[in-house]
Amino acid sequence: MNAIYSKVTTKSQTVIPREVREMLGIGPGDRLFYRLTPQGVVIAKAKPLAKDDPFAVFTEWSSEADEAAYANL
């Protein structure tokens, strides 16, 4: 694998190189997580938060009674 570089700005920001974005499958609005290891840092795409998912189930409507009431819709 080839080495890929990016610079850190004075505001501690960097551009994630295209090759890395494509490999991780990330785009605008995606979240990343960083895991510190003795060998270095592992960067990966984080799973979306439930609150960010427009199709997430409303917890106030997810009881067994609601499931039964809406089962035939």
Structure description:
- The protein has 73 residues and is an alpha+beta fold.
- It is 18% helix and 16% strand.
- The protein has helices spanning 18-24, 64-69, and strands at residues 32-37, 40-45.
- The protein has a two-stranded antiparallel ribbon.
- The N and C termini lie far apart (52 Å).
- 0% of the residues are buried.
- The model has no long low-confidence stretch (mean pLDDT 83).
Structure described in brief:
The protein has 73 residues and is of the alpha+beta class.
Oligomer: single chain
Distance between the termini: 52 Å
Q: What structural class should be given to the helix and strand makeup?
A: alpha+beta
Largest sheet: 2 strands, antiparallel
